[in-house]
Every structure is written in structure tokens, then in C-alpha cells.
Amino acid sequence: MARVSVEVENHIARVTLTRGDKMNALDPAMLEAIAEAGESLMDRDDVRVVVLSGEGASFCAGLDVMSFGAMAGKDPVELLEPRTHGNANLFQQVPLVWRKLPMPVICAVQGVAYGGGLQIALGADVRFAAPGTKFSIMEMKWGIVPDMGGMALLPHLTRSDVIRRLTYTAAPFEAAQALEWGLVSEIAEDPLAAALALAEEIAGKSPSAIRAAKALIGFAEDNMHDPDAVLLEESKVQAQLMGKPHQMEVIAANLQKRPAKFS
Which domain covers residue 210, as residue numbers? Predict the structure, then answer.
């Protein structure tokens, strides 16, 4: 059965988890499908922004319990340590592919985002959540640690004491608390509508500048203890944008008070 759908229209790719009857829980087929969906967009020059969502009552309830039982019989070293997707294994690629994409990713979350579901959402650039949405770093409930890229993503979003508390307890928390902790960007009555509205706004900006901005932000996050490197990268990126066709079209559109049109 299909686990993920990808639709591209007006330069926006809508990626939807389509296992709504199972709260979009992550079984092996779902993991493969999510990673493949993200990777299929990597070289799509026509896509300027991605909206990631889950059908049904919940965004993603985390790992499918039945799948967990099946994986428990495998050698964990052979299952987890090989780098099958660049710097990641499959489990890590499922959230990290959204951070690796060259275009921004906006995630709409409702119902629950537990365990792997939360880590998938954290891979997005921006997260809208419905009021009352429940989150959890759930892994400690099963006697394991977060292992789907969460430890590469969380330190950029919230404080160390928050990460430790949520990891040690596996306690659920709601959208309002997630917003306070920086794990949600905004609470919206209709998070998908909010995500699509932001996507339309971003899609109207210079495609080359948006991609350059995402790459530059990522570089700054990865080199926060080396400001000299960040400053130099900032200058290099700017030099590559100035005077080029996309920037010249932005200038012309602003002067003529019209929407920019990019080839």
C-alpha cells in the first residue's frame, strides 16, 4: 500500500503521509517511502518549497509497535551502524532528508507527533501545530534513546535542560509548551492551511536566494563556534547572488510594483 504521496503544483511540493488509519505510524515500508519521497525532490529545480503533513487525525504516532517487535530480533549493530544514506542510516534519513533538501520544508502537525514522528517534524525548517497537539520524545518508554536524528536537530532548537528532561521522562507535552520551548514555530487552528500560505509566500521569492539562505543558515548552525568561517561564507554566498538574473528580476519587480517572475 502507498505510504506517502507527492504532488507538485505552482512550485510547491505537497508531501503527505498517507497511513492515516494507523496514525501514520512508522513501519519499514513507511520509513522507506518517506526517505524516498524526500530524496525524489533533491534535484527538482521546479520545486521551491515543500509542505510536509500527515493525513487523518494525527501527524505521526512514531514507530509501529509490531515493527518494533520484528526489528528486536535483528542484530542492532548491523541494523543501525552502517551509513546507508550518506552520513545516516535509514531511520536517521527519514527526518534528516528534509533538512538536507536545498529548499525550505514546512511541516503541519496535528493530533500527535511521538518519537520518530516528532523527529520527522524537527527536520523541517518551520513547524505549524494545531492547538492541543501532543508531542513526546517517546523512546525512553521502550528503554532506548532517540536515534532518528533527534540529537543532531534538538540542540539547535531548544535548551539542554529541556532536551534532557524530555528524553529522560518520555513525558508527553502539548503544542503550547512546544512553542515555548522552540520546538514549534506557531500554533494554528488549521496548520496545513497555514503551512500552505507560508509556502506560497516563499515560492514567490527568488529561488536562488531562498536556497542560498537555507544553505547559509545550516552552515552557520554547524559552525556557530567559528564566527570567522560564518562571516566569510556569508560574503561568498552574497557575492554569488548579487547581479545575477534572479536578483535583477527582484529589483525590477520591486521598482515596477509587481510580482517577480522567475524562469
Answer: 206-256
